[in-house]
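Office hours follow-up: a student asked to see two folded examples consecutively, so here they are.
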Amino acid sequence: MNIAAISVIYHQSALKQQAGIAIMKKAMENMQTDTQALIRMMEQSVHPHKGVHVDTRV
């Protein structure tokens, strides 16, 4: 192989790696956003006054 072909192959693989990293970063950002939304939803669903008293009479 000549140097030009090696250079092209190297730059193509570097570009693929950069694209993969960018996609992974976006997926991680989406996961973080989803996790934060889930935590907020769980915090809002808590009702501390419910379930304290249980009616045992029929």
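And the second, which I mentioned at the end of office hours:
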Amino acid sequence: MKVITTVGISILTQNYQGQFANSKDALLSDWDNERVQGEIDKFRNEDNQTNQLFPKTAQEVCAEIHTLYEIAKQNPTETLQVYLLATDTVTSVIACELMIAWLNFNKEDGDETSQRIQIAAAVSTGELGVMRQQRSIYQSAYPDAFILPIPDLQVKNPNAFQTTGFSNLLTAINAIAGTDKPILNISGGYKATIPILTIMGQIYGYPLRYTHEDSKEGQIIGLEKLPVAFDAEQIERIFPLLDEDVLPNIDPALLNEAANFGLLMPDRKKRSPLGTLFFNYVNNFAPQGKPALGVFVEYKLLEYFAFFWKDRKSYKVVRSVPIIDQNEEEKLKGNEIDLLLEPIENASIYEAIIDGNLTSGIKPSGYIACEVKPFSSFSNSTKFKKIREQFPKTCNYISSEWDKPKEFYYIVYTLLDTIPDDLLERAKDRMKRVRDEMVLQRFDISFWLVKLSIPINVDTYTNFMQERIASLEPIIL
């Protein structure tokens, strides 16, 4: 069980009050400074620790260890893999070392709970590999123990704290978490990090645990994930604009909603820590299936083609046509035709779906196939990877198992009133890749834009479903 622990200096203030005047405000870059070396050596002195630190109970020594003990007691069959995240200061790293020393002493003394608390080894996942990791000096019980100081997580430079310190902290936590759901022990560290770590826990499903210096044994505050999520329509309005490859070039007037949510720095040229949290969640962690908004858009497009399209009298339209593996008579995972337009005189798929007997032997001809995706699927590189994985399979199937389509409509929807030029050109470049690298001239493909207007109110989808899509706007590549 992974437990990520932010570490402050409560172990110093509770056990060494008034004994770290020189190192109190020192940044980690001052570690080798003579001014602080004397205090560092004093804290590392084993006799000093034996007299001032080791006699303390888990409840008495510091809030971080108290919380770890309570987590261990709540999970009696688990071994905790503890990751110590220090601030960018001398005292926080020393605090980590003293925590390890206390755990080391109690582990060697036969304490069962300490034996189930392991300080994790170095981490080198993704961006985290560029951050400094300081090896612990306590080797006997924790031979692989590492401390991870977070660069710029310090209050001497408030601007660095807000811009890069917060972001480095989030990067570290996500890198350590990987695909797991670690517990966040937020009893230590700067209190300013608690709000954003609480939001992070809610977004990613990381449980939070907290105690304070006056908590009694057995008292621990926990917060599990609540049933909350981002609105899909707000994601589609804001997420495409937060890509920092194009963000500096976007007209600040187009960023009001993102700024009002606190997702941007004051100059509107970079994401705020909260914006990074939001962007990374949508980019890497949000459910990959089709959101409710996407399904609603497909139904509105079905309505458009059936009742308002100029060629509506010549075609029948059906939604969500499965691509079936003719060898197994099962739908190929992740592949379907979102909308299929068949000539009225030969609507074989339409009739088979209505009758409930669609099989791989039923093949359309003279049809128009439609794929429906949010604009962010093309504007964002990570989202585009999903198209690169799935769409070639669709192209191969309709080119070999069916008669080739008369045309393929790739329909992209957006909630942006104005799409910034850089963002649109980036999306167009990827559309050209679809045309040139995936379709490979096997059939004609065109790209279309649907601009949606969804007001922010209690009856958001009610209003949206009552309005009709007026037209499709061609995207000229």
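Two things to take away from it. The chain is about 40% helix and 15% strand. The chain has three domains: 2-223, 232-285, 292-474.
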